[in-house]
Each structure stands twice: as C-alpha cells, then as structure tokens.
Amino acid sequence: MIATALVVFVGGTVWTVVYSFTDSKLLPRLNFVGLEQYERLWATNRWLISIENLLIYGTLSLIFSLVIGFVLAALLDQKIRFENTFRTILLYPFALSFIVTGLVWQWVLNPDFGIQHIVRSLGWESFAFDPLYNADIVIYGLLIAGLWQGTGLIMCLMLAGLRGIDEDIWKAARVDGIPMWRTYIFIVIPMMRPVFITTLVIIASGIVRVYDLVVAQTSGGPGIASEVPAKYVYDKMFLGQNLAQGFAGSTMMLLAVLVVIIPWAYLEFGGKRRPT
Predict the structure, then answer these.
(1) What architecture does CATH give domain 45-270?
(2) Which residue windows are transmembrane per the record (predicted)?
(3) Which of 177, 191, 220, 245 sits at a 20 to 30 Å CA gap from 120?
C-alpha cells in the first residue's frame, strides 16, 4: 500500500513537475526549456483572469462558509425541535455533485425562467438578476452555488465542535453574567481552534481545485470571465494539446495547496511537544 501510494501520488507529482520544464505538446518528451512554460503561463491573460477569479471566489467562499456554517451550527446547538430534520435539509446539497449543483443553479439564475423571471412575473418589471450572463459579477453567481452546496458540511463540522464543549463552561458563563455572544467569541471559538483549522484546510483545498461547478454553470463564460486555474489546466492538456503548459499550471496549483497544507501540518503537529 505504501509503495503504491509513493508511485501513484509522489511519483506522479514529480513527473508532472519535471515535464513542466519541457516543451511537451501532444505527447510528453524530455526536451527541457527551463522556465519558458512558466513565463508563458504568467504572461497569458486567461491564466491571470483565472487567478483573479480564484482569489475573489476563494476569499469570499472562505469567509461566508465559516460565518454561515458557524451561525447555523450555533442555532442548531440550542436544542431546537426537529433538529435532525433541519440538519438533514441543510446537509443535503453536499450529497449532490458539483455538476448537478451547477446545472441546478444555472436554471435558478437563468433570467428567462429563474429568479428574475419569477420576480418580474409578480409585478416588479425593473428587477434584474442575471449574474451568470454578466461578466462583471459572474464569479458571484458561482459563489452562490458553491456556498449552497458546501455550507452544510461546514455547519456539521462546527456543530460537532460545539457539542464537544463542556456544558460546565456554559453554566459558568451564565453564572458570571457573560453575554452569549461574548461567550462564543472569547471562550468557545478559541476552544474550537482544531475544528476551525481542519475546516479551513477542507475549504481551501476545495477552492483551489474548483472545476466542475464552473464547467456546469458557465463553461468559463461569458468569454473567459469565469475562468479558473483547474479549467485552464484541463483545456491546455486535453483540448489545446499542450501538456507542458498544463503541467506548469498544475504545478502552480500544487504550490497553492502546499501553502495551505504546510502551515496546517505545522500547527497540528509541529507545535506539539511530547512531555519529557
């Protein structure tokens, strides 16, 4: 098992990085050209737009996923009636693939029969809401679909963390007259640090490799307004028949993942010291 993992994952990764320094086109070949592929990558407008979109989508997705997920978890933690039903409903979108989610929200946001059409049919003729057809805000249409699918999982992770908080802490806070919001901010959230770190890693890794949602909703359009790095890599490798350029893009994505994983690994393992 270990040997298989090393060959498939580590070997594949090294192979990709090595061939990103070649001029491979349809088939891989060891004709090294130095940093030429990376220079071409960062001089390509389509790649730059994809990075900008990923930063916007990633930043907002990270913030809203954590905030909405935690708020929903805090509400469910109040031992409300029908908690299991609400939890199932909120988690259900996560069971769907990104392709299905993208297609559903493509219909919902379609101005001809989606939200815009419904609101206008109610008499508000001036209402306009067509983010998937507006290059300036299309990335926010993708964000809505992404949050709808992923927030339920974040809620469940946060709820598990909240349920792990000792009930005596809540009782002590109430006895001391500490408002609930201060208890959450200054006591509960710091105690949930491992949950937050794990959640951040899950969200960030999903952001870097977002692909299915974009393909299903917009195919990168209008034009290239909703392009993302994963789609750029796929198109270069399988449609543009430019393996080296795709390898260069995937290597940059790998670096982005390492930027997330290495600090997490250090916080989780590197900072811990065994008692002597």
Answers:
(1) Orthogonal Bundle (1.10)
(2) 54-76, 88-108, 137-162, 183-208, 247-267
(3) 220
